[in-house]
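Suppose a colleague, Dr. K., hands you the sequence of a protein chain of 335 amino acids and asks what its three-dimensional shape might be. Before reaching for any lab equipment, you can write down a predicted structure in token form. Begin with the sequence itself:
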Amino acid sequence: MAQPTYDLITMGRSSLDLYSNDIGAPFVDITSFAAYVGGCPTNISVGTRRLGLRSAVLTAVGEDPVGDFILAFLQREGVETRFIPRKPGHRTSAVVLGIEPPDRFPLVFYRDNCADIELNIDDVLATPIADSRALLISGTGLSKEPSRSATLYAAEIARGAGVTVFLDIDFRADQWHDPRAFGVVTRLALSLVDVAIGTEEEIKAAAGAARIGITHSQISDPRVEGDVNQAIQQVLSRGPNALVVKRGARGGTVYTARGEIIDAEPFPVQVLNILGAGDAFASGFIYGYLRGLGWREATRLGNAAGAIVVTRPACANSMPTLAELEDFVAARGGL
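The predicted structure, expressed as tokens, is then:
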């Protein structure tokens, strides 16, 4: 059997990330920003490439210098960019972030008329999804048309070809016309997914607040369990073989459709910036999964990658290399 062309194709948003250089300063006192590359699937394409996977990304950029900036960075990283269309009349996305550790990271999205939400079925057909080992889709890609249909179609192609489908739940409430719609659409997508990845907040949103007795104002309230376990079962009932719960400083847990619960311990570190940590986690986890590691070991790799990135200022630019990841884990007792 011929070897697949790519280990992983990621699909969805990309952006120019402008992050405050004034660490700890309130947003109104920021004097300068550093320019990086971001966007959940784009970050994961870089993270997995730095770990040695053959990674490609299906996103879209405008015919603008910001798009040039993103493409140049990805090409330097060795991520395949040939499937990234330019969308005339649409702008490459941007994000602006303040950094006030340990727990204030004010974030502003600039995604009006953005290019990546214009991904369409023709763009999917031009991408060799069936000739890859895995596809990653994300929740924000489901937020609007034509990206929504394109994302679901990509997952259908992958599923039909026996390609593993990962979903990063990626709940960004302000990217939806109604946060309740996020749960409705995500639950439809879950039937095409092998492994879903998300935080407790994202899982409660995907399960549907009303279905588990939570109001949307309570979704991010850690006191409202209401119930996280019930939300996990709601997500698993829609079809995934496993749900990986990112718990930050508390590590990660895998829940399988067979009823297994596998905990993976965290790697404690001093936090600089939490943005990008979840995408680093996904990168480490997917790398471990595709290497054939068990649930706990793959999740521990995800924990380690996330721990490294929270000590660094950026997202894609801060992803660890395989040597860095292995050294970090070895210095802390291994997997």
